Amino acid sequence: MIKSQIGRRYSKAIFDIAEEKNQVKEIYEMLNSAMVLYRTDKEFKNFIRNPLIENEQKKAVLTEIFGKDNSENLNILLYILDKGRINCIKYIVAEYLKIYYRKNRILDVKATFTKELSEEQRTKLINKLSQKTGKEINLEVKVDKSILGGGIIKIGDKIIDGSIRRELDNWKKS
């Protein structure tokens, strides 16, 4: 709970700075890259989290990795490191993305089907959801053969479960 509160507070401040500099998307991309690296590269994660390594060394590494494009944006990442909040990067990025989506009327939709959607099916689903919600749709599709058929769509905290697995489970219960 505390990390998500930290993420909210930092993401709001970072988003305000990003809007002021007209670099909302660029800062998101940098923060997201840092989060992905932190989550997927154990050596990097251990290096950043190691209290025996001075912050100056950590800053040098972050500058080498992320400082090529825009040093002003890099300062945001260095600030997060200075404040000892780099371990909250995933919460900061997630909250930043929520603000970005809300301000740009984008809806994050997660869909699960038994097989990959064709480009035509994907486009139809996006268009239908966009018409229903009046928002731009950011669709993430997962494949899960265990649902047997149909699909599951998650929009925020709402779930539309049209899977055959759910139908069979309901049938067994009755």
From TrEMBL:
GO terms for cellular component: plasma membrane; proton-transporting ATP synthase complex. The keyword Ion transport applies. It holds the Pfam family OSCP. Keywords: ATP synthesis, Cell membrane, CF(1), Hydrogen ion transport, Ion transport, Membrane, Transport. The keyword Iron-sulfur does not apply. It is found in: Cell membrane; Membrane. It comes from the Bacteria. InterPro entries: ATP_synth_OSCP/delta_N_sf, ATPase_OSCP/d_CS, ATPase_OSCP/dsu. It is a peripheral membrane protein. GO terms for molecular function: proton-transporting ATP synthase activity, rotational mechanism. Belongs to the ATPase delta chain family. F(1)F(0) ATP synthase produces ATP from ADP in the presence of a proton or sodium gradient. F-type ATPases consist of two structural domains, F(1) containing the extramembraneous catalytic core and F(0) containing the membrane proton channel, linked together by a central stalk and a peripheral stalk. During catalysis, ATP synthesis in the catalytic domain of F(1) is coupled via a rotary mechanism of the central stalk subunits to proton translocation. This is ATP synthase subunit delta. It comes from Fusobacterium pseudoperiodonticum. The lineage of its organism: Bacteria, Fusobacteriati, Fusobacteriota, Fusobacteriia, Fusobacteriales.
